[in-house]
Specification:
globular; alpha+beta; two-stranded antiparallel sheet
Length: 114
């Protein structure tokens, strides 16, 4: 899905703290894509073990957990419920190590009709 990112906040602290980190990470990814000439990127599934997005025991969460997006097993693809830890590591990750990329040259450009 083009231009898609999921923002999940903290369940034990202000939602907006994680939302701010997520928006900053999305901007970092977009800058990385622009610098490298990528049309698309996504976390490399082979390098990440997937985990449930929310570790809550609430019945309404457990009944629908299969419908939720998943998260990775390490930063920046994991919501750790710890703002201090996340704020010091989220923006310091090497994106080239965890992203799979599609170069712009591999994508057919749409034909414009005049």
């Amino acid at each position: 899905m083009p231009d898609f990112a999921v923002c999940i906040g903290y369940t034990n602290a202000s939602w907006t703290l994680r939302a701010d980190l997520t928006s900053r990470l999305v901007c970092k990814v977009l800058r990385h894509m622009d610098r490298k000439g990528y049309a698309a990127v996504m976390p490399e599934r082979g390098r990440l073990d997937e985990r449930p997005l929310l570790a809550l025991a609430s019945g309404y969460i457990q009944r629908s957990i299969g419908e939720f997006p998943r998260q990775g097993d390490r930063h920046p693809w994991r919501v750790r419920q710890n703002y201090l830890l996340d704020s010091t590591t989220t923006l310091r990750t090497g994106l080239g190590k965890t992203l799979s990329a599609t170069p712009k040259s591999a994508v057919r450009q749409p034909v414009s009709v005049s």
